[in-house]
Give the backbone structure.
Amino acid sequence: MSSDDFQQRVERHNEKAAQTRPRKTGVRKTSYGRLFVGALLLSAGYQAVKHTNANYESIRDTYGVNASVGLGIAGIVALLVGAVLVLRAVSSRR
């Protein structure tokens, strides 16, 4: 391939690249639905962990250790998912 052919190919490629649409940039609007669901999950997770901690012995005696550990882990997971949803709802994209 001669250098003239190569230069022509490069120029055609550059012309095609210049025609692509630019990406939208800017700040995202706050998603109130996501914010509400995130806050709901945060509070539900907090209450689950608080309830498990306060009633550990009665839960353990009635349902076993696995139930109390599972409830605590489910509460922590709900806390984390809720926190992620709240942060995604209020954060801006730059």
Q: What stands out?
A: The chain has a mean pLDDT of 85. The CA atoms of residues 41 and 61 lie 28 Å apart. The chain is about 80% helix and 0% strand.
